[in-house]
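Researcher: Here's a chain I'd like modeled. Treat it as a single chain, no partners, no ligands.
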Amino acid sequence: MWLFPLGQPTVPECWFYRSWHVYCPGCGGTRAVAALLRGQLLQSLYYHPAVLFTVGSVTAYQCSQTIWRLRDRRGWVLRYSDRWLLVLLMLLVLNCTVRNVLWFGFRIPL
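Model: Modeled as a single isolated chain. Structure tokens:
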């Protein structure tokens, strides 16, 4: 709560949404980061799942690499793979698609 003492932070409106009234793949990312900084994991996941996936993946990778190097490069280590990027891109597309389908099909704003 100390990050935003007056409540929710004000975030500038997305120019993509303002111009075309369509959610972009990044819509919700800033709110997700702000929620994550407040420790609200589920709220961050609701706003944009790619943010939590990225933070979790990078943290797991960094911890794995650190432990592996401290053990003189012995044992199991998490290595980078292009599949991680593919999963991130799929999350971005899926999030954008679901938001726009809910908005245009059912008038449910997210």
